[in-house]
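Give me C-alpha cells for this 315-residue protein.
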Amino acid sequence: MEKQFDVLVAGELNADLILDTLDCFPAIGKEVLAHNMTVTLGSSSAIFACNLRTLGAGVAFSGMLGRDHFGAFIISELEKKGVDTRYITCSPEHHTGSTVVLNLGEVRANITYPGAMHHSTINQISEEAIHSSRHLHISSVFLQKRMKDDIVELLKKAKDAGLTTSLDPQWDPDEQWDMDTSSLLPFVDIFIPNAAEFKALTKTNDMAEALRYIRQMDHVIVVKNGREGAYLRDGRDLQYQPAFLNQSVADCIGAGDSFNAGFIYRFLQQRSLSDCVEFGSLIGAVNTTQTAGTAAFENIGGIKQIARNLFNYTF
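Here you go.
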C-alpha cells in the first residue's frame, strides 16, 4: 500500500482548560486567582501531531473521543492544523477527556478526566492506518489503560508492516510504572521519556544514577530534562545536548511534545541522531515562546523566524 502519511499518532485526546499566571498554587480550603484562561486543544499526542504537521510532515491520528462538544472541538482543531482525523473513533458511550492545567511560571499541575481515552484499544487502530504510514508514534500509554496492556502487540504489528516507531510514555498518574520496558524496547526505534519519567521507570533516584543506567542500554533512548538539556544514547555512546534557553518563557506546556516533533521530523529525513536531538531541543524551545503548546506553530515561516531571532538557529 502507498504510504499516504509520514506519521500515524496513536494517542490520547482531550481539551485543556489552562489557568495561567497564578498568584500561587491553591491550598485545600483556600482560593487563589488566575489572571488568564485559555480553552484549547490538549493532550501530549495532539500537540505532537499538530506541531509535527506544521513542520511539514504528513500526520494522521488514531484515538477515541466522545460524541460531545469537546470531541467536536478537538476534531476541528486538529483539522485546522492539517492533521488527518479519519481514524479517530467517536464513542456514543464515553465523554471526551479534559485536563485542567494550573500554570505557575515554568511549573504546572494537571488534573485530568480521562473519559474516552481510558477505553481506546489497539483494535481501533486499523490495518489501513498502519499500512498507510511510514512511522508510528505512541504517547501517554498510562492514560490509555486498555491500549497499554497490548502495547507490545501494537508495536510488533507496526514493525512487521515496515514502520519505524517511537514511544513517549508520559507520566503515570497512578505512579505504578508497570511497563515492561524489556519487552517493548526491542520494537521501539526511539524511546523518548523525560527525566522524571525515566527515573520512575528505572527506579533510580537521581540523574547521575539514571545516566549510569542509560549507558548500559543498547537501544536508542532520548531523555529530555527541560532547561538542563537532553541526553541521547545511540546504542553505543551517550551524548549531551544543551538546551536552547528562552529568557522570556510564556509557559512550558507541550515543550516536551514539541521536542518530540522536532526529533521525529529530522529522524524521518534520515538525519543523524545528533542532528535530531539538536533540532528537537530547538523546537521544544520555540514552544515556550507562546502559550498552550501549539500557539508558536502557526506556520513554518513563523517557526523559522523565532528560531533565527531568539535562538540564532537557521534551517
